[in-house]
Structure of F-box/LRR-repeat protein 15-like leucin rich repeat domain-containing protein:
Amino acid sequence: MDSILCDELLEEVLNRLPWGPFFAPSIAVVSLVSKRWLRLCRSTKFHLFLRPSPDNGISSFLSHFPHLSFLFIVIDRGQDDVDVLNFSDQILLSVASSCPKLTGLHLEHGPPVSLFPLLSLSTSCPHLDFLSISLSRPISFHWLVSLPSLEKLNVVFTPVPGEFEQVDTSKRNFNAELRLKALVLDGIRRGDYGFDSLWKSCKNLKRLELYRCEGIGDDSSVSSFVNCFVNCFNGLQEVILSCYVVTAEGLRTMVLAMSNKLEELALINCKVEPGLLTTLGQSFRNLRKLDLSYNVMLADEEFISMLASCNCLRDLKVRGCEGLTNASLVSMFKSCKQLESVDIMNCPGIGAEAVELFVLNCLRLRALHVEDSKVSDVSRAWSSKKFIAVVAI
């Protein structure tokens, strides 16, 4: 009994110790005391960061952390041997056998995972609500039905060496309402199948992010995807798109189908055609955050016209928008009285005088990202008086 009480007391002490970066230093220090202390320290870990290799014996290592709830793993892709290519599957199977209380798993830079390890994970970790993985083609999302608690999903679609036979997984659609609230997809190609059921099943979605996507999958499901914005994505509040190869027409169709409840929108390095931003401003008057970074063709007239309708903006990013000039910066503080954070880095048309005027007149500004050469002494003085953090590079 005394031993149990001592262990419980020691666990409480270890829980109150300050953690080192990614938790590793604390384990190293405790291990110098005794194996008992090391065992107790591991039993108190809820989050873990690892950079393992295929020969590390990750399964036996994870078994020492019975209460682990979040696992972040970075995989070294410097090798292409069979062990490395199957390493993500090994990790998922190890997690499934050793971490029953896991709620979050992030595999960084990992090779694509297979269906069987995903099903094993869903069976052994019923409380998993966050998952970040890579998938290869052909693509299928049927395994999502087996993860009833999943709310956040990040997927990178990774090309694999050699040819594969494309399978029309839309013919094997699943019919389920997923709990997903946040969905991040990276690398959808033209002609990819398996997305139609995914779009229809995400009725609880609040955040959608698409990166480096050539389309939305399933050549026949474009209208279905747009209809999902109208009929299924009613609660969508945040949309982030960074897809340069998407056509201007496709972008317009997608944006106009979004709910007017949208609070955050990012169109990064997209083909923003004339007239789209004006329509956007009129449609999304509740926008709080807007990111138009690296739209090099964006011009003052279009941007100013949009700002006239976006009176609720608090966070605005136009980094790399080379077509904007001082007139746009003046329009920001005139039209957007609630602005708190602004990023105007790499906008050569905006000068130091306009920045000075902006700092003086933007009443709620708390953070400004701009080149150091554009920050005058007057701007620095007023920034200090108004407690504005100027991130000058």
Q: What stands out?
A: The two ends are 60 Å apart (CA to CA). The CA atoms of residues 32 and 45 lie 17 Å apart. The first strand starts at residue 47 and ends at 50.
